[in-house]
Specification:
Strand content: 25-35%
CATH class of the largest domain: Alpha Beta
CATH superfamily of the largest domain: NAD(P)-binding Rossmann-like Domain
Shape: elongated
Bound molecules: NADP nicotinamide-adenine-dinucleotide phosphate, L-homoserine
CATH topology of the largest domain: Rossmann fold
Oligomer: single chain
């Protein structure tokens, strides 16, 4: 009989933790494409052996996996024989982190979609995997079905990566697209994103920008060869965006996108997630719905662009199952053991202060419609060394105030914030001024 396991030629048993949106897709692919994967693996067969969930009755109700495979008992799950691969598609930390570690302790290879866990506990988990002769594959943790991790880990290995920039959250991109193209209210678009299976169990993670910040941390660790703690990546979300700014952006030839931006800055890195004005002529402005896209700038091959579905059941399951196949074939565990690509062997990174980073900016100030106010605002910007590219007062009144819309030339974020604090203190202005970066793609 053929030997089982990733080094043998027989059946490779798979355990799965979690059976929700992504887990259901993984179970479906393993069931429906069994013959294709067996052929690609030169005869090795993949078999889902056990599925750990919290609520068996709920999972049975979905009809996604055979009821006999389901258990809520972690001991029973880990006692399942001949199960060298564990797919973790539960999400979050806490108990899931314990299960993850238990799988690695038992020298099982783990395939995961969990950027929250990797961005916080990555170095310890990767070191544990290495110590136990296991591996961690995590293509699904960023970019959904786009094979961006494979590109960074292997396809771009000859390059020193200078910058990564893109759309990494499908929920936010779906919401922004529906607001712009179909004039849907924010809350309606968010509810739809949840119903379609794009959002996290706690959608605050999506709309606050934290999910994209966790993904940027995981990507940056690979791209820049330095460990990045997800908590240290600053994030602004789309939850505080005013629909007025979405419309002004459209009028001015821009589209607002939630961008994750990572670039080398001196001996450190600049990492940031924030809504940005993207010129309509750039490909990123044409990325709609749940699609994600990422530009990577390598020193040798310049700009490469990756585009595809960034969230949802089957695109994400595609990334997970591709990892399962790579692990089951035996090549990925060998690469993991012998190469120096993962965050357990990388030094912690120095993150530069975003206030010191330059960009062009869109600013909006609500001002009293009285003589001299535009002059005061432009003088305060000028005094701070901020050069105005365009300024106009709109004939739309917000209460007793009218929006003054400004675009700047390159300026430091810190200087812009200081000037806006002084403008906010004027009697002739109302509320918090709005400040959004305007993106120019790096050359490459
Ligand atoms: P989901 O639909 O909420 O499913 C989560 C599943 O995990 C449920 O079956 C849940 O069981 C189970 N679970 C949660 N905590 C558990 C625990 N402590 N022990 C055992 N089972 C547990 O979530 P999802 O959308 O599939 O996302 C799963 C993972 O994939 C997350 O890390 C997410 O960030 C990532 N991801 C999702 C997408 C997407 O488009 N949805 C895309 C890329 C990556 P109960 O129902 O019994 O609680
Ligand atoms: N909630 C995430 C998103 C899932 O919307 O992008 C994919 O990681």
């Amino acid at each position: 009989m053929a030997e089982s396991g990733v080094n043998g030629s027989g059946t490779v048993g798979i355990g799965m933790i979690g059976c929700g949106t992504v887990g259901g897709g993984v179970a479906r692919l393993l069931a429906e494409q069994s013959a294709l994967y067996q052929s690609r693996l030169g005869g090795k067969r993949l078999e889902l052996r056990r599925v750990l969930v919290r609520d068996v009755a709920k999972a049975k109700g979905t009809g996604l996996v055979a009821p006999a495979l389901l258990t809520a008992d972690a001991d029973a799950f880990f006692a399942t024989p001949d199960m060298p691969i564990v797919v973790e598609v539960a999400g979050g930390r806490g108990a899931v982190s314990q299960h993850f570690r238990r799988a690695l302790e038992a020298s099982k290879h783990v395939v995961t979609a969990n950027k929250s866990l990797l961005s916080a506990e990555g170095p310890a988990l990767f070191a544990l995997a290495r110590a136990r002769g296991a591996s961690i594959a995590f293509e699904a943790s960023c970019g959904g079905g786009i094979p961006i991790m494979t590109a960074l880990q292997f396809g771009l290995m000859a390059n020193r990566i200078e910058a990564v920039l893109g759309i990494l959250n499908g929920t936010c991109n779906y919401i922004l697209t529906e607001m712009v193209q179909r004039a849907k209210p924010y809350a309606t678009a968010l509810k739809e994103a949840q119903e379609k299976g794009f959002a996290e169990a706690d959608p605050t993670l999506d709309v606050s920008g934290r999910d994209a910040a966790q993904k940027l941390a995981v990507l940056a660790s690979l791209a820049f060869g330095a460990h990045v703690d997800g908590e240290q990546v600053g994030a602004e979300g789309i939850d505080k965006l005013d629909v007025a700014d979405i419309h002004f952006a459209r009028e001015m030839g821009y589209t607002i996108k939630l961008l994750a931006i990572g670039q080398r800055a001196g001996d450190g890195l600049s990492l940031r997630v924030a809504p940005c004005f993207v010129p309509d002529a750039l490909p990123l402005a044409q990325v709609h719905g749940s699609f994600n896209a990422l530009s990577v700038y390598g020193h040798a091959n310049g700009h490469t662009f990756y585009y595809g579905r960034g969230a949802g059941q089957m695109p994400t399951a595609s990334a997970v199952v591709s990892d399962v196949i790579n692990v089951a074939s035996g090549w990925y565990p060998r690469a993991f053991a012998s190469m120096n690509l993962w965050c357990d062997r990388q030094p912690p990174v120095k993150l530069v202060d975003p206030a010191q980073q330059s960009s062009r900016f869109y600013l909006r100030v609500n001002a009293k419609d009285v003589p001299g106010v535009m002059g005061k605002i432009s003088t305060m910007l000028g005094d701070a060394g901020i050069s105005i590219a365009g300024i106009s007062q709109r004939e739309v009144s917000v209460g007793k105030f009218v929006p003054v819309v400004i675009t700047t030339h390159q300026a430091k974020l810190g200087a812009v914030r200081d000037a806006l604090a002084r403008i906010k203190a004027l009697d002739a202005t109302d509320g918090d001024p709005v400040c959004i970066r305007i993106i120019d793609m790096p050359e490459g």
